[in-house]
Amino acid sequence: MSLIALPVGFRPNLFVLREQVAQRAFMSPDGGSEQVIDRLNDRWLLSLTLPNRTHADAAVIEAFIASLRGMVNTVALYHYVRKVPRGSMRGAPTAQAAAAGAQAMVLNTTAGATLKAGDMIGVSGLLLMVAADAAANGAGVMPVQIVNCLRVAVGGGAPVTWDRPTAPFRLVSPTAVQYIPGHSPEASFDFVEAVA
Questions:
Q1: Once rounded to an integer, what is the mean pLDDT over residues 11-21?
Q2: Which helix (DSSP H) or strand (DSSP E) does residue 179 occupy?
Q3: What is the CA radius of gyration of the chain?
Q4: Per-residue pLDDT, 106
Q5: Looking at residues 149-159, what average pLDDT do you find?
Q6: Domain ranges of the chain
Q7: How far is CA 127 from CA 62, 78, 138, 139, in A?
Q8: Taking the alpha carbons of 130, 20, 167, 149 in that order, is the dihedral positive or negative?
Q9: What global pTM score does this model have?
Q10: Read out DSSP for 90-147?
């Protein structure tokens, strides 16, 4: 497996990121009560569409698709609309230790730094979404609730990526480039986060 680089000019005109929660639901056949178990193995599903292109530009996209070799290779993708947080957190934040399965973590950043609900951060190879607005205290300590369950434990001092945090994704759609006279029409892609 290889990590394939995105082609230059890879800019979608349609983008969707959604969470897939691994869960099991059990329903009583008699009383109707139910129980849902969270399997703690969330992953991201990402869909995007590239706009019409010239035949020359389409050839680059065609080579990119072929390089992914179906689901064999991966590509590092990020949230194309929120590339950086809406909040003010910048610099070189780090994470305090957090256990696998946690839905909250504590960051060390600058005093008064903020994150907003929906902001994306990366830590320990995970792409995480902030669940609620958070602010650092005067010492720069920021408790953060996250939408995802941590699939792996996060070590104390792990760097936190705020500028285009990525995760590896696999192509799961039968995507192909089409050619018509004068241009190549939109190409749509469906990806799933690759979980090690």
A1: 93
A2: none
A3: 20
A4: 98
A5: 95
A6: 3-78+167-193, 94-159
A7: 27, 8, 27, 26
A8: positive
A9: 0.88
A10: -S--EEPPB-TT-SEEEEE--TT-EE-TT-EEEETTEEEEB-S-EE--TTSEEEEEBS
